UniProtKB/TrEMBL annotation:
<dbReference type="Pfam" id="PF05088">
    <property type="entry name" value="Bac_GDH_CD"/>
</dbReference>
<dbReference type="InterPro" id="IPR049064">
    <property type="entry name" value="NAD_Glu_DH_ACT3"/>
</dbReference>
<dbReference type="InterPro" id="IPR007780">
    <property type="entry name" value="NAD_Glu_DH_bac"/>
</dbReference>
<dbReference type="InterPro" id="IPR049062">
    <property type="entry name" value="NAD_Glu_DH_ACT2"/>
</dbReference>
<feature type="domain" description="NAD-glutamate dehydrogenase ACT2">
    <location>
        <begin position="403"/>
        <end position="492"/>
    </location>
</feature>
<dbReference type="InterPro" id="IPR048381">
    <property type="entry name" value="GDH_C"/>
</dbReference>
<feature type="domain" description="NAD-glutamate dehydrogenase catalytic">
    <location>
        <begin position="726"/>
        <end position="1220"/>
    </location>
</feature>
<dbReference type="Pfam" id="PF21076">
    <property type="entry name" value="GDH_ACT2"/>
</dbReference>
<dbReference type="InterPro" id="IPR024727">
    <property type="entry name" value="NAD_Glu_DH_N_ACT1"/>
</dbReference>
<dbReference type="InterPro" id="IPR049059">
    <property type="entry name" value="NAD_Glu_DH_HM1"/>
</dbReference>
<dbReference type="InterPro" id="IPR049056">
    <property type="entry name" value="NAD_Glu_DH_HM3"/>
</dbReference>
<dbReference type="Pfam" id="PF21077">
    <property type="entry name" value="GDH_ACT3"/>
</dbReference>
<feature type="domain" description="NAD-glutamate dehydrogenase N-terminal ACT1">
    <location>
        <begin position="35"/>
        <end position="172"/>
    </location>
</feature>
<dbReference type="InterPro" id="IPR036291">
    <property type="entry name" value="NAD(P)-bd_dom_sf"/>
</dbReference>
<keyword id="KW-0560">Oxidoreductase</keyword>
<protein>
    <submittedName>
        <fullName>NAD-glutamate dehydrogenase</fullName>
    </submittedName>
</protein>
<dbReference type="InterPro" id="IPR046346">
    <property type="entry name" value="Aminoacid_DH-like_N_sf"/>
</dbReference>
Amino acid sequence: MTARETVVPVLLEKVYKLIQDKLDLAHRPLVTQLAQHMFSNVSQDDLIQRNESDLYGAVVSLWHHINEKKADDISVRVFNPTVSRQGWQSTHTIVEIVVPDSPFLVDSVKMALTRLDLSSHLMLHNPTQILRSDKGDVVGVSANEGVFQSLFHIEVDRLSSKAEMTQLKEELVAIFRDTGLVVNDWMKMVERLQTVTDQVEAQKASIPVDEKRFEETVAFLRWLGEHNFTFMGYKEYDLVSVDGDTVLKPTQEQGLGLFANSNRVRDVKLSEFSDSARLEAKKPYVLILTKGNTASRIHRPAYTDYIGIKKFDENGKVIGEHRFTGLYTSAVYNHTVETIPLVREKVERILEASGYREGSYSYKALHNILENYPRDELLQAREEELLEVGTGVVQMQDRDLLRLFVRKDPFGRFFSCMVYVTKDRYNTELRRQTQRILKQYFGCEQEVEFTTYFSESPLARTHYIVRVDNNNMDVDVKTIEQNLMEVSSTWDDRLSESIIANFGESKGLPLSKEYMRAFPRSYKEDMMPGSAVADIERLEALSEENKLGMLFYRPQEEASDSKAVRLKLFYQSDEPIHLSDVMPMLENLGLRVIGESPYEVRKTNGVTYWILDFSMLHKSEETIDLREARDLFQQAFAAIWAGELESDGFNRLVLGAGLSGREISILRAYARYMRQVGFPFSQQYIEDTLSHYPELAKGLVKLFAKRFDPKHKGSAKGQQDLINTITEQLDHVESLDDDRIIRRYMEMISATLRTNYYQVDENKQAKPWLALKMKPSEIPDIPAPVPVFEIFVYAPDIEGVHLRGGKVARGGLRWSDRQEDFRTEILGLVKAQQVKNTVIVPVGAKGGFVCKRQHTMTGRDEIFAEGQRCYKRFIRALLDVSDNIIEGEVIPPKNVVRHDEDDPYLVVAADKGTATFSDLANSVSAEYNFWLGDAFASGGSNGYDHKAMGITAKGGWESVKRHFREMGIDCQTTDFTAIGVGDMAGDVFGNGMLLSKHIRLQAAFNHMHIFIDPNPESASSWEERNRLFNLPRSSWEDYNKELISKGGGVFSRRSKSIALTPEIQKMLGTKKASLAPNDLIKMILSMKVDLLWNGGIGTYVKSSNETHTDVGDRANDVLRIDGRDLRAKVVGEGGNLGMTQLGRIEYALAGGRVNTDFVDNVGGVDCSDNEVNIKIFLNGLVSNGDLTIKQRNQVLESMEDEVGEIVLDDAYCQAESISVTEHQGVGLVKEQIRFIHTMEKAGYLDRGLEYIPDDETLLEREKQGNALTRPELSVLIAYAKMVLKEDLVCDEIANDEFHAQQLIQYFPTELRRNYVQHMDNHPLRAEIIATALANQMVNEMGCNFVTRLQEETGADIVDIANAYTASREIYGFGDVLKRIRALDNVASSEAQYDLIFHVRRAMRRISRWLLRNRSGKQSVTALVELYRDDVNAITKVLDETLVAAEVEEHNSVAKVWVEQGVEEELANSVARLSSLYSALDISTVARETGKTVEQASKLYFNLGDRLSLHWFLKQINSQAVDNNWQALARAAFREDLDWQQRQLTGQVLTCGCAADLDVIKALDDWMESNAVSLHRWESILNEFKVGSVHEFAKFSVALRELMLLNLNCMSKD
């Protein structure tokens, strides 16, 4: 294989080029040769960062140097080249050497540099053949002829001082001189050794040495001469006596090698030798082998080897020595011992002496030890010493021990120490420490030298040479060994011992192996092995359940009152905990972190743990007793870490007040509640107050415990005592704010009725959420409206609130995103719910919760799952403090002290964000075995699916149809234009936009898209909408673009701007070419269109007097419009809060048709309530065993359509009621004001809150011909129902058999058919009856019916309800109303409302008559039985009994209605109600006089006509009233007149006694006989016939006359 041609580096090429260019012709080739020769072995790395000019300079400099010196000169130059002087430069000091070639030069130069502590940065050296001319000029360079010279170019660390440079130069020159001496005398010395060996051999007989050893000695000497020793010096000495002392004296003959220099040779007195050396000198051995006491400066930096060959006289006495110094060559170190004379014999003897059997393990081991033993030692040491070492090491048996063997140098110059230790244990640190210990022990001045040897053996051997002036001392090897063991015993060893001591051997050994090298160096430096064992216990205790271990402690070094504390955290993970995660937690616990040390612990099985050690100062004023605080702190921190406790400033109370984390969460929960109810102090301020007054904080927690801990049974006295104590302490609180905060805490705790704080789960663990049931009316300054009950739920991951308007209340649970003020949002909704729930049994409730960790999540699914988890937690918390009903008995929750009565009714419903969560709620209900079962949350998988039923949209559509009917349009058969908010995937929008096939949807938008179809085709667009509705998760994007009319499209709301086509411009009535999406929506909202259908979320219309901030829906601020700008003719509010109430009113005053959201979308809540009440009923049957769950579900499902109809009927009637009232217009304003006042006085209605205008505004409106708008009427009707419903929940109503029919009518047909006998057991029987009755009364009679009758008659509500029900039944008004409603789209709506108003008025008058003329408390049934037959009889003969003129009058009224599309019979019967009202009077007269009702009837009407009483009644009715008193007076006149007419009729009937009385004749007779009195009456009537405006006083006088007439007539009888 041929070596690759080396490529010449470019840099060198440049150097050669410079030589060519710059030098004269003669020198060029020579200098080039020199350069090539010098650079031939240079490495590429050495050329980096150098430039050609400096390299060129270096070569030229060397060239001159060679030229200036002779071939045998030793020349060394040391200089710092500069450009100015040398023409080149270097950052280093340059050493140039030109010397005759010789061995050892390079080694020796390198050693010299090392000795002087200089680094070499570049060393170019090569023996170069240089040919010189006779004159001495160089004529050839490495051209295979000439003398070899060694050339060096060396760059060393820069030397700045002259002295240093001189020192270096002199050192090098001295070395070269020595080298010269050694090299020149080398052969002579080899020869001298031979001569001496021959002499010794010749003296064999006289030398007292045993033969074998002698031969070995000679063989050794001969072996040395065979290139196994590098000779450096020789000198012969004689042993002579001088002054009684024996002296070793150099002979006259000049020494060789280094000893040729006589300065290196001197006399030595034997008395100056140490004892051992003297002994050694006098021993009868031929050789003395030892080490010299100086290190060689040549070849190898080792101490020179000393070989002394004694001179003997004939008697075998020592008379001198031949001394050789030098260095053994590598052969001594590398050849096996068997090849080295003297040594092999020594080894044999040692093996023999060991007593080991040849071939045994120990024999081989010992042989191996000696074979690898340092050769210098083998040569120098005594056999006994070697045997001791060898057997000692064999006995270690490769165990983890440490052994030390010490040998003294016989000449007292050093100790040779052998340290054996396992390889694992050997490290630089141990070596350093050993050096230190040896140096210290032996009192050595120099550094201790060492050589370390590793082989396959598990042991490492280090040979230390400790140089001393005199080694004559006793050495206690065991003490040193002990110290070394202590040093070598690593931290891990001590850990192992501690682990085994702590855990016992069986458990400890495996553990100690696992943790053998687990801990990092930093940990070992900081921690004792003992504390590591404690840490290991904690690490081993970590598991899936226990992910974080910890230790809160105070270092031993700190005093017990010190502020310094530490915390260790233990956990398993590949990544360390980030400091930023832990710091805030610790700061919040009142600790200042001043340092942190993370330690990664990696077990041998690869498991990684982390230990974090925090050093901290605590901030509390008190000193902390760590024994007490530790557990509290650790539990709190673990809980914070696990997310079970929040990390905030309240946690300072753990150390500051000694409260547990859970106790603190009570205070935190109340603080959060304060935030929600708008208490003015921030949480941080509250935290500071409680930290500042830890005793008060403790007191508050004690007060909570006194009130709610079951063991105190809620003792009132204990609470009062505590409140007094806290109040006393408050006297020492300086700040008024702090005082207010503590007092507010006390008030809130006292206003709390129940809590689940003391409940535990099945694992006996405290519940991770806190529920507080409050009575908000007892909390001062709480914002209105104030609910009756409230449950506040607090947990680190969720907060929520559930507000109820009464004991039986329902409403949705909303997943709110308003972390800071969700209660405000819920409060607004509960108000809306209150008015919405008037249609259903329960009053309003609303709940809302926030997921506090939602912001940390990303994906939609992850957030959804978190919402579900929080929702379930929220519901569990609500059920924790709710009573249950088991087998008809109320069972309070476990471990809950109740400060209120039984309260078992809790239902929830879906709302924003929780639409699909009903099954979750019901699963929790089942988990708690709650009495409502799956009636707890309506709409679950076994409930009515609102979206599938489309019930909310259908309910709203009833209002839309009515608005259109009132405009004379049937929107189910006539095309109309519409715009909408929402998309077809939504329940309300999707269902709503399919409810008529004649919708022409021109535009719609949701949060993503804007859909525009300027000229839609109703049929095809309906089909496409239907397709989208059935397409899962569809959006406007999916709408088939081909079906959109020209110019339309679907636009993204993310676009910067949207170009408007001519068609869109025309539709919007704008000339703008493009608009930003939000501006486009704004224009869509304000375009001319028939219907705006809101099925979305958000508030889009406000009044011009409201700001966007007032609205509280920031997302839609940019596109909201004012009510006056809304130009749609009709608004259907399927969604909640689509308009503000003031926005609706403004729109209605401008002629728009709108109800309110709670009227339009009542369908959903109504349907849910029906479902709940049906389920409560059916669940009762299931638990009695009358039904199985499966049958129950089938029954439920089968009734879905009918429930839908019931709900729509409710929606229909409610909207109708508003319309009838609105239709009456201005005439009712004063009554309505009266009603508003009544409701205000009773504390039900807050005018400002409900945006009902003040009296001035209403009277102003009345003058302008405007009455209350529909949105305002909607509120009044809701309040009327709300109050009435509450008042009707009483036994008198519930137990009335007639009202009880309401209960049966409430349920669908199937239940009425099969289970009617069980209905009376319904837990909400009274509430259902009251609700049905209240709704019916208000819908049919208007909002102020009850209050007006109360004022007019003073009757109580039960009597009024009975009178109303009786009048409805007696006259069959229910049927009449049904027939009127059947005229939708047949008759005009005005005619329908007229008819209903007539019915309403008749019912009111009849009810009043019944209240005025009743005898005692009569049941409805009794009243009906008393009057119904008579009324029916009178109705049949009415036209015959009436005077012709009156019949004519009735017919003309009816005719107007018939022309408007009313059936004739219906029109006639309603027209005659004003006369039929008298039927009750007639019936009474007939009964009193014993005549038939037909007779009485005929007489009554004729008498009224003859005496002009009917005319007079008309005068009364047409009398205008200005105030309530006048209204009452007018009613009184009417009653008086009726009564007088009844009396007079009675009188006339009594006159004629015959049964077949001719009433007309009787009347004639009577009038004749009372002519005088009648004349007086007629003259008064004539007064009335003049003019049409009369004073009230005139009526009083006239009625007085009539009474006198009555009395006169009676007295005549």
